[in-house]
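Example 9 (inverse folding). The structure is encoded as follows.
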């Protein structure tokens, strides 16, 4: 029996095989064309080093929806990736220059392990700045993740980041500050999100900006989820898209490289790296992406751009 899938991605994209093995509902191009509905066009600006891994993680969360999605993967033209095969980029990715005349219903800007750099030191900062301006007129709602959230807050509202004394690394409990927010509809009063970063955003900077609303906060990890009043910009400082083993992989990588790293907090059973971690954020991660797609993209975007 053929499995129908609501995400329209190239048939030979490696993520497709991974998601199919997980019984995740996605769709290839031939099946998509047979459905007489208007799909949502979603762009993912992927600036993570391991692009295949990151694209799979975000597609997994986008897939749990009855909506049909056309996915466009983007990478910066002003940065040469050293960790992703050029053939993969040439086959599946476009640049901003190639799509800037289009409109998108939604966009995701991923994180990147570059928070130690000043924004102006990032070699694709000018390209990203142009894209962030473009999202205000060409994208219904943009979801910024981790460093992408810090970059968006800096560009749109001149809210900076500050260096932490020790890395924010682990799985942290968060509280909801806005009970009637559509983005958090169906959430429990407390929920968990993985974080992995060396910098943070000050709560007082968010709360002093009248165009922003702080939606959730963690006593340990700080600011987590912020949105603009018009819902066109959403800023998420954590990594709900992470898989069960993602923080363990980062920890083991740093241990192997001899880099100083603490055991991720609230992650391994009994704080023992030899033990399997518990995946405590899966349900809320799926709900967050579905709420964003439904309330901020699908119900807000025009039928015809």
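The amino acid assigned to each position is listed next.
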């Amino acid at each position: 029996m053929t499995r129908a899938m609501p995400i329209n991605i190239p048939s030979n994209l490696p993520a497709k095989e991974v998601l199919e093995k997980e019984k995740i509902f996605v769709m290839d191009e031939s099946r998509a064309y047979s459905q007489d509905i208007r799909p949502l066009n979603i762009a993912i600006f992927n600036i993570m080093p391991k692009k295949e891994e990151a694209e799979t993680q975000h597609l997994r969360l986008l897939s749990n929806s009855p909506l049909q999605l056309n996915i466009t993967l983007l990478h910066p033209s002003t940065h040469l990736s050293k960790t992703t095969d050029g053939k993969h980029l040439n086959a599946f990715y476009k640049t901003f220059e190639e799509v800037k005349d289009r409109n998108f219903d939604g966009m995701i800007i991923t994180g990147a392990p570059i928070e130690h750099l000043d924004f102006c030191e990032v070699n694709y900062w000018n390209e990203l700045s142009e894209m962030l301006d473009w999202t205000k007129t060409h994208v219904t709602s943009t979801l910024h993740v981790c460093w992408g959230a810090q970059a968006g807050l800096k560009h749109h509202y001149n809210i900076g980041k500050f260096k932490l004394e020790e890395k924010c690394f682990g799985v942290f409990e968060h509280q909801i500050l806005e009970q009637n927010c559509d983005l958090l509809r169906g959430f429990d009063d407390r929920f968990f999100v993985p974080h992995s970063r060396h910098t943070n955003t000050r709560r007082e900077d968010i709360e002093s900006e009248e165009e922003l609303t702080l939606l959730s906060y963690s006593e340990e990890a700080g600011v987590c989820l912020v949105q603009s009043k018009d819902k066109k910009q959403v800023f998420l400082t954590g990594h709900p898209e992470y898989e069960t083993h993602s923080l363990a992989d980062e920890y083991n990588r740093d241990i192997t490289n001899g880099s100083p790293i603490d055991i991720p907090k609230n992650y391994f059973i009994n704080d023992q790296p030899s033990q399997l971690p518990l995946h405590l954020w899966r349900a809320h991660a799926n709900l967050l992406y579905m709420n964003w797609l439904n309330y901020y993209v699908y119900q807000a975007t025009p039928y015809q751009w």
